[in-house]
């Protein structure tokens, strides 16, 4: 055998049901990034000019973790709204709309895959 | 044979080999090697130092043959005595080898140079006047009348001569501040140039004018005016060569004192080695702290203790291999695991503490003493007539209260021989006269100052010798090293060229100064 590790991106659709805490509906994660922010300080992006919205923290046991959101995911769409060219504040607003109980996110995730190849000689 | 041993022992590595034949001179021995020193090709590398013989260098024993000495005589080291009171020139090498006290011949040399220059200057100054006056004296009646033009020329000659006189006085008539070993090349060149120039003018004048009794007086006067103009230009040349050329800094020299490593850097222009040595010495007296032999004894005693415990026994037989022995000793001493570094560390820490304590006591004592002295105002003079004192008496009055603390401090810092009680009292009255505070008074004692601050008897450094491998009239170049020696220590001078600097410009438009704020916020949702 010879094994090769590669990074590749996969898209996931994640549906988060917001949790009511007092007067607020929370999702249980934190975002960073935006077109008005400094992309070079983003630790999760592969391309340091990427100004997209990234998931920087996921609270344990929160709705996001339950739904399968992981730290480092890049959020591409929220409920059909594009998130790749928005400011930080616009992103926050789209995620925290008061009248929405469910948000459907399209995220891009980088994961490792071990590709196992059989060697030439059997 | 003992004579050979005598001559081999010299006080430095440089003149080690060359000490041989000059000692031969000095003792007036008729040795077949002595003519070598008079060899013309080596005259600039001659050696003339009279110093007491030091202990022989390691490995330098009687087995070294005299023939070996002769082979090494072609060594390219030069040592030239350039003391502050005598000047020596190339032709006087033979005379120098006599007693140094016999200075009559050397002074004559210096004054000879001065008189030659003075005579030449006088001659040059009187030449235009002579040119103008001689026709008037010799064939007045034949001269063409020459009215206003000539009178105008007379006035211009007079003023130009006056300017020349003032300029020469300003440039050349200065107290010589030092005597240097070799001739000052540029001055000699200028004197030769002036002499040739005036000589050719006289030649022309003599042949064309005196002999033929030229009647065109205006032409003669204009000839004299042209001479004065040319002299003014030569004066300009003298200024450029002697004064301006070395103003622009081209070299940086590092001067290190051999005994304690104190070093300074100076900037120099295009100078000859001997003039650079002069500059270094002038700055030495004001920049370097005074040489204090008492501070060096500690390291010497440490080194002595380090090597003292080793003895060498020769097991192999009677062959006396001195250099082998010494090498063995050094190797053994290096391998010995002793704690002299420990001693040094604790000794230094202890010394620091003691000095600080004594210094604190001294500062307090002096402050208290100074508070007792108050300057008497004019009105109060009538009120307390009985207590008026002049500065000297005031100093004597407060001196006892601080004398002990001061003396203890000076002893701890080993400066006690530099300050006598009389000098301290004098300084104290000086400070009181000029309204100085206690700190200003103490500034002289707390830190060792430059050599100029102290009495001439304590200087340890009045006669200097320039030791150089290149001729001392050659210019400075990158990498030259020369040494200025006096009896107790030496200054090693290392010359480095100032690097060529490439400076380029970059224009920044003031309108381009614009900034953005780069954030990275994190919001929890």
From TrEMBL, chain A:
PROSITE patterns xref list: PDZ (PS50106)
Instruction: Please indicate if the UniProt record lists Translocase as a keyword.
Output: no
Q: Please provide the record's keywords in A-Z order.
A: Acetylation, Cell membrane, Cytoplasm, Membrane, Nucleus, Phosphoprotein, Wnt signaling pathway
Q: Which Gene3D superfamilies does the protein's record reference? A: 2.30.42.10
Q: Which Pfam families match?
A: PDZ
Main localization of the protein? membrane
**Top-level taxon of the source organism:** Eukaryota
PDZ domain mapped to chain residues: 13-110
Topology term for the membrane = Peripheral membrane protein
GO biological process, any: neurotransmitter receptor transport, endosome to postsynaptic membrane
Q: What GO annotations for molecular function exist for this entry?
A: protein kinase binding
Recorded hits in InterPro entries, A to Z, give: PDZ (IPR001478), PDZ_sf (IPR036034), Synaptic_Scaffolding_LAP-MAGUK (IPR050614)
Q: Where in the cell is it found?
A: Cell membrane; Cytoplasm; Nucleus
Cellular component GO terms, alphabetical: adherens junction; basolateral plasma membrane; cytoplasm; nucleus; postsynaptic density; postsynaptic membrane
Name of the protein this chain belongs to? Tax1-binding protein 3
Q: What is the lineage of its organism?
A: Eukaryota, Metazoa, Chordata, Craniata, Vertebrata
Gene expressing this chain: Tax1bp3
Automatic annotation (TrEMBL), chain B:
What membrane topology is annotated for this entry?
Answer: Multi-pass membrane protein
> What does UniProt give as GO cellular component?
plasma membrane
Pfam families linked? Strabismus
Cellular localization per UniProt? Cell membrane
- Tell me where on the tree of life, at the top rank, the source sits: Eukaryota
Q: What is its main location?
A: membrane
**Ranges of Basic and acidic residues compositional bias?**
36-45
Entry coiled-coil feature ranges: none
Cross-referenced InterPro entries, in alphabetical order? VANGL
Q: Where is this region: Disordered?
A: 1-86
Transmembrane segments annotated in the record for this chain: 111-133, 153-172, 184-204, 224-244
UniProt keyword Cytoplasm present: no
Which residue ranges have biased composition labelled Polar residues?
Answer: 74-86
Q: Biased-composition ranges for Basic residues?
A: 19-35
Keywords of the record, alphabetical order, are: Cell membrane, Membrane, Transmembrane, Transmembrane helix
Family note: Belongs to the Vang family.
Q: Which PANTHER family match?
A: VANG-LIKE PROTEIN
**Name used for this protein in its record:** VANG1 protein
Give the organism, scientific name: Chordeiles acutipennis
| The organism's taxonomic lineage, starting at the top | Eukaryota, Metazoa, Chordata, Craniata, Vertebrata
Which gene underlies this protein? Vangl1
